[in-house]
Amino acid sequence: MQVIPAVNPRLCPLCGQVNQCAMEVERATGVKQPPCWCTEASFDAALLASIPEQARDKACICAACAQAAKASKAA
Fold this sequence. Notes:
By secondary structure, the protein is mainly alpha-helical. The protein has one domain (22-74). 33% of the residues lie in helices and 0% in strands. The longest helix has 12 residues, at 63-74.
């Protein structure tokens, strides 16, 4: 039987670094946060498809991964 590790919503599912999602910070701390950068961002379908299935809708992509995907698409 394969054990699937729990998804940490504070970590980017692509690189594993802290995603700094303001919505997750607010959920975890109860402290009101300003709107997260991700609410204004547009994410390419290919980038979203690269998120492991178990992390979809559970953890945010970090700004660095989103920017890297945008840069590689523009190149």
